[in-house]
Amino acid sequence: MKYYATTLGIVFISWSAAVASEEEILTPRKVTITDDGRKLTITADGRKDFGEVAATIENAKDEKEPRITSITLTVGGKTFVVPKDQFADLRDPLIQTAEFRSEGGRGSGPWLYLTFQLAKAGAKSTSDRPRVYIRFQNGKLMERSIRQPQQ
């Protein structure tokens, strides 16, 4: 009986590890940023789930209060304009930290994320800054989210 319980425990542990989903950073193919630092373009291979992915993020000219003015996302050849309400309230975006990430999703299809950090006074490392997620799933843009640093 002990052998059976141990084997069953291993099966459950293996199954739960397979069900758990983790973000994977997609290796960028090309990243360009303008000389004035106001516009960033990034491309990556979204593999079989998304194909070629690209994004362009533009900041306003106002250096006193940096803000994003536009974000476009291209997934598998289709371009999506991110609605302004997903970024208009963001202060001090660090567009040079932009990257693509993906995640398996549980039954509803894989997720694609365009992420970047926000500046935070007193941050000692990159893990101390909030991270914005522009989220894409099943052929459409979803509501953005912001992951706050661990307390």
Describe the overall structure:
By secondary structure, the protein is mainly beta. It has one domain. Helices cover 15% and strands 44% of the residues. It has helices at residues 2-19, 47-50; strands at residues 24-25, 28-33, 39-45, 52-59, 68-75, 78-81, 93-103, 111-118, 131-137, 140-141, 145-147. The strands form two sheets. Strands 1, 7, 8, 9, 10 and 11 form a six-stranded antiparallel β-sheet that branches. Strands 2-3-4-5-6 form a five-stranded antiparallel β-sheet, with no helix packed on it. Strand 2 (28-33) and strand 3 form a beta hairpin. The longest helix is centred in the N-terminal third of the chain and has 18 residues, at 2-19. The radius of gyration is 19 Å and the shape is globular.
Low-pLDDT stretches: 1-20
Structural class: mainly beta
Query: Average pLDDT across residues?
Result: 86
Run of helices and strands: HEEEHEEEEEEEE
User: How much strand content do the residues show?
Assistant: 35-45%
Distance between the termini: 44 Å
What fraction, in percent, of the residue positions are helical?
10-25%
What's the helix count? Answer: 2
* Cα radius of gyration in angstroms: 19 Å
Shape, per Cα inertia axes: globular
- Characterize the biggest β-sheet: 6 strands, antiparallel
Oligomer: single chain
Number of domains: 1
* Total E-strand runs: 11
Summarize this entry quickly:
This protein has two helices and eleven strands; from the N terminus they run H-E-E-E-H-E-E-E-E-E-E-E-E.
